[in-house]
């Protein structure tokens, strides 16, 4: 189950069945046509930060800030911990199965926190995987156009 928080005021619980029942068609990059209770909606993803699981979504003419938490994120929050607060990330792994659309770094390159490392297409969305910290790229374990499974190693830091 996913917990969705919209504009820091409204919270919703969504199951995988709810997602599978969603009648949405991607009309162009990050643009969607959605049918909900016989109502037609136009939606677009304006911004996304995959590491923080935050998105800015425009539905018709309204813009919303959306935070998505999976079960692990919810458990960590309930225990009072901040995700990644004391953990130094050395490896970036695929958060879900998908297709590597673009790799924006090279081996030995110095990167800053939140620099775009690569783009992973999954579930009809392009997800920018940003650097969780400052560092130097030790190795890149994938190639552009390659499909990956969840938890496959993507990038290692020195």
Automatic annotation (TrEMBL):
Keyword hit for Ribonucleoprotein: no
Top-level taxon: Bacteria
Classification via PROSITE patterns: BIOTIN, BIOTINYL_LIPOYL
Keywords from the UniProt entry: Biotin
Domain Lipoyl-binding: 80-158
InterPro entries according to UniProt: Biotin_BS, Biotin_Carboxyl_Carrier/Decarb, Biotin_lipoyl, Single_hybrid_motif
Gene3D superfamilies: 2.40.50.100
Name of the protein described by the UniProt record: Lipoyl-binding domain-containing protein
């Amino acid at each position: 189950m996913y917990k969705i928080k919209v504009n820091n005021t409204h919270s919703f619980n969504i199951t995988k069945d709810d997602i599978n029942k969603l009648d949405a068609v991607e009309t162009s990059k990050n643009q969607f046509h959605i049918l909900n209770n016989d109502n037609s909606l136009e939606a677009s993803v304006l911004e996304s930060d995959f590491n923080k699981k935050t998105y800015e979504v425009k539905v018709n003419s309204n813009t919303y800030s959306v935070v998505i938490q999976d079960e692990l994120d919810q458990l960590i929050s309930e225990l009072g911990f901040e995700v990644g607060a004391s953990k130094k990330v050395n490896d970036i792994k695929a958060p879900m199965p998908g297709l590597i659309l673009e790799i924006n770094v090279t081996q030995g390159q110095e990167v800053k926190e939140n620099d775009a490392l690569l783009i992973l297409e999954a579930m009809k969305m392009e997800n920018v995987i940003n650097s969780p910290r400052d560092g130097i790229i030790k190795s890149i374990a994938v190639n552009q156009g390659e499909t990956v499974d969840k938890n496959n190693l993507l990038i290692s830091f020195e």
